[in-house]
Design a protein that fits this description.
- By secondary structure, this protein is mainly β.
- Helices cover about 10% and strands about 50% of the residues.
- The protein is built from four helices and 14 strands.
- The chain has a 14-stranded antiparallel beta barrel with strand order 1-2-3-4-5-6-7-8-9-10-11-12-13-14.
Length: about 350
């Protein structure tokens, strides 16, 4: 098993740092509430039988002249093959989709994915689990040429679309494959840790809107995640989390924590703060969440502190996330750190 894991890690790292083109994927401030976009290895890894998750983000409204960038994702995953699993082993299947719109030209990207994951109990007592997940799907990307007006069209006072910037097509479709690894360590009911590694665009899809000899390939994105759940008292938990992503010339580090207050009525309230760093300071993220039984709701707001703060007036993005878990007679015994953290 150790040899297999070593090979899987080597393959992921090899693909993660392959070269080629520029591009940046969708990302969420509440990444911990978007398990199927964070790492395919999270598929089916939760307390319960069925899980529904969704995130909606709107940003840069002021900087974009009143036309905000919006991102939406939804997902569903479920435990499968329960009767075939031994000890704390698990398997999961999931489906997810996303929609993203950016810029005045309405650059829209939509995708649908299916994912599978296997979670291996390494010690036989449910204390350490190693997971491997794979995700495959189809993505469509396109834009509205009529909403783009270039310099030569403005200077020559000619109609939009009649300038030198001519496109062979305004819509493309490509297949995409992602993969990930995850390690969870349940030291005790009061201390849980996890570390994950995921990589995206293993198919290295081409995203050309022009017929050219150049290979405009969507570059791989590598993401490293870590976090945990620490019970301080019966009423209070501390929930730190970390995310680092790199995609060609773009990189992002997101570090912070939340504190959770558990009431006596199956409800909990959480407050948190994170700091996101790009090539320079990017944003402070404040978050408030509410849990009741099997429903978790999170809301966050980004306070822009980058060099764009004068243009954006400090306004970054607003995001809302929701997770709903349906229980069953066979649920995971351990309280895992993701996504209920």
């Amino acid at each position: 098993m150790k040899r297999i894991l070593s090979i899987l890690i080597s393959v992921l790292v090899l693909f993660s740092f392959s070269d080629n083109a520029i591009g940046q994927d969708i990302h969420f401030s509440q990444f911990y509430f978007s398990p199927l976009t964070l790492n395919p290895a999270h598929t089916g890894f939760f307390n319960g039988k069925h899980r529904f998750s969704t995130n909606y983000k709107t940003q840069w409204k002021r900087a974009a002249g009143g036309d905000p960038y919006t991102t939406f994702t939804g997902g569903y995953d479920v435990h499968i093959l329960d009767k075939m699993m031994k000890a704390a082993d698990m398997a999961g299947f999931g489906i997810s989709f996303f929609s993203d719109k950016a810029g005045k030209g309405d650059l829209k990207t939509t995708g649908a994915f299916g994912s599978l994951a296997y979670h291996r109990d390494m010690t036989g007592n449910g204390k350490q689990l190693v997971s491997f997940g794979v995700q495959a799907g189809v993505v469509q990307m396109g834009f509205d040429r009529s909403k783009l007006r270039f310099g030569d069209e403005i200077l020559s006072e000619i109609e939009t679309g009649s300038g030198q910037e001519q496109f062979d097509k305004t819509s493309i479709i490509y297949a995409d494959v992602n993969a990930g690894l995850l390690w969870n360590y349940i030291y005790s009911k009061k201390m849980i840790f996890f570390v994950g590694l995921s990589t995206y665009h293993l198919t290295r899809p081409k995203v050309n809107f022009l017929t050219t000899t150049e290979s405009n390939v969507l570059s791989n994105r590598t993401a490293i995640q870590a976090g945990g759940s620490f019970t301080i008292t019966k009423m209070w938990d501390v929930l730190p989390s970390f995310l680092y992503m790199i995609q060609k010339a773009s990189n992002e580090a997101n570090l912070g924590l939340a504190v959770r207050y558990n009431t006596k009525s199956e409800a909990a309230i959480r407050l948190g703060a994170w700091y996101r760093q790009w090539s320079n300071s990017d944003a402070f993220i404040i978050m408030a969440g509410f849990e009741y039984m099997d429903i978790t709701l999170g809301m966050s707001y980004d306070i822009n502190v980058s060099t764009l703060k004068e243009t954006s007036n400090g306004q970054g993005s607003f995001e809302i996330a929701l997770i709903y878990v349906l229980q069953s007679s066979k649920a995971i015994v351990q309280d895992m750190a993701c996504p209920h953290f």
